[in-house]
Amino acid sequence: MKSKYITLKDNAYAYSQSSLSFVLRNSLVEEGERIYYFDVFFTVENIKYKLKIALFDSDFDNLKGFKYGTPISECYFIEPDFHLTVLHFGDEDLVVYVNIDSGLRYANVATESGIAIKLNVTKDKFDHFINQLLSINDAY
């Protein structure tokens, strides 16, 4: 399977080096549901963090129904240690927080601790990023 890279970069990427990237590694059908296995990379300045997640068809259904709230929207996935918080300012400006629950990652206990990466992006960039993710699901 050819890997597919999908990246959302901060508006000031040249200075912040902040980005979120999904790399599709594999896709399998188990118990009638397709599961997509991704390596997810978060970068801030010269630091790169890697997370392995699985997205399900139902996660893609949730993304298809994503609506911008005023001023906060959330993108949750079945994978409990990863979610997105989207702050909507005006017509075009968004702040996307990529949230990682370190308690689940290291001790298998849900917590509200962990790191969050902040990305300042335009609505068009974020919509394009979501549509690229959805295109993976549409391809199967």
Summarize the structure in words:
Helix 2 (57-64) runs antiparallel to helix 4 (123-138). The protein has one domain (4-57, 66-138). It has a four-stranded antiparallel beta sheet. The chain contains four helices and eight strands. Helix content is 24%, strand content 49%. The model has no long low-confidence stretch (mean pLDDT 87). A hairpin with a 3-residue loop joins strand 6 (82-89) and strand 7. It is α+β, with helices and mostly antiparallel strands and 140 residues long.
Helix-strand topology string: EHEEEHEEEHEH
The biggest sheet, with number of strands, parallel, antiparallel or mixed sense and barrel status, is:
4 strands, antiparallel
Give the overall form.
globular
Unreliable residue stretches: none
Class from helix and strand fractions: alpha+beta
Helix residue percentage? 10-25%
Report the span from N to C terminus. Answer: 13 Å
The total strand number stands at 8
Which strand-content bin applies to the residues? over 45%
Counting structural domains, the number is 1
Order of strands in the sheet with most strands: 1-2-3-4
- Gyration radius from CA atoms, angstroms: 15 Å
Question: How many DSSP helices?
Answer: 4
What is the fold's blueprint, element by element?
Layout: E1 4-9, H1 13-16, E2 19-30, E3 33-44, E4 47-56, H2 57-64, E5 72-76, E6 82-89, E7 93-100, H3 102-107, E8 116-122, H4 123-138
Antiparallel strand pairs: 1-2, 2-3, 3-4, 5-6, 6-7, 7-8
Helix pairs in contact: 2-4
List keywords for this structure.
single chain, 140 residues, alpha+beta, four-stranded antiparallel β-sheet, 4 helices, 8 strands, 49% strand
